Give the backbone structure.
Amino acid sequence: MKICRFNEDRLGVVVDGTIRDITDIQTEIRSKARYDMLGDAVIAALPEYRDRMEAAAAAAPGIAVEDVSLLPPIARQCKTMAAPVNYEAHVAEMAAQPHITGEDKGPHRPPGIQNQGIFLKANSAVVGPGEGVAIRFPDRRNDHEVEFVIIIGKTGSRIKKEDAMEYVAGYTLGLDMTVRGVEDRSFRKSCDGYAPVGPWMVTADEIPDPSAVPFTVHLNGNLQQDAHTKDLIFDVPRLIEFASEFYTIHPGDYLFTGSPPGVSEVHPGDVMHCACDLIGEMSVTVRAAE
Ligand code: MN
């Protein structure tokens, strides 16, 4: 099942390429949820409500995808996690450009994801594809990093990788937008709008092997990142194990799995088009911040 959010906080299911509005079910789920719950009520309720959601979607009229503004698939994630340095070829391309990463001013981190850990992007950086990215520092280098993104399905801590797939609600695509420089990753990657996510969540049953997912981003029509999750250094189960050693994970949490090679600079007016046959596609427009 493909679950989206659109327009003014509406919930949809994508059926045969059209959006079916099931906002009434979202309203019911939220009315039963504690306000102070950690995580997203709809994702937490998915196992219980899935059959009803599919039935409601089948009976609803279709709305064309191009006629809505897509929001991020999760309304209230508890946190947005991201893996750095998780493809060897991306590690190599960044090591070859120390003037961009700031490493020419002296190495500031030991190499390897096992040493650098998972970082957090501000939840306020997350936007839907319809919202676009506003470049806050146009005189600095701003890069796209297209990434395969895990959406957590239930609360857990210190999860073993053998059990990790039970904690996956689904997957989506994300752009880990980045201001290059010497500041801490979390600071540079958390500007407003620097985490477009979408076009929707595909439930985990539709991607039984998350190590077999090709995906791409084109910048203004030119292929920039042509990736495959088989190349992840820490695969999906290991990333969940690693992140949950430090954080309790909650339903709706995003976990960006890391950038493949091919990152490049973006400027106002550019269009980033992300695509994955198993998920869908989204175009994200770059503009200047006000
Ligand atoms: Mn990244």
Remarks:
- The pocket of manganese (II) ion is lined by residues 82, 145, 147, 176, 256, 258-259 (CB under 6 Å).
- The chain has seven helices and 20 strands.
- The domain at 80-288 is CATH 3.90.850.10 (Fumarylacetoacetate hydrolase; domain 2).
- The first strand starts at residue 2 and ends at 6.
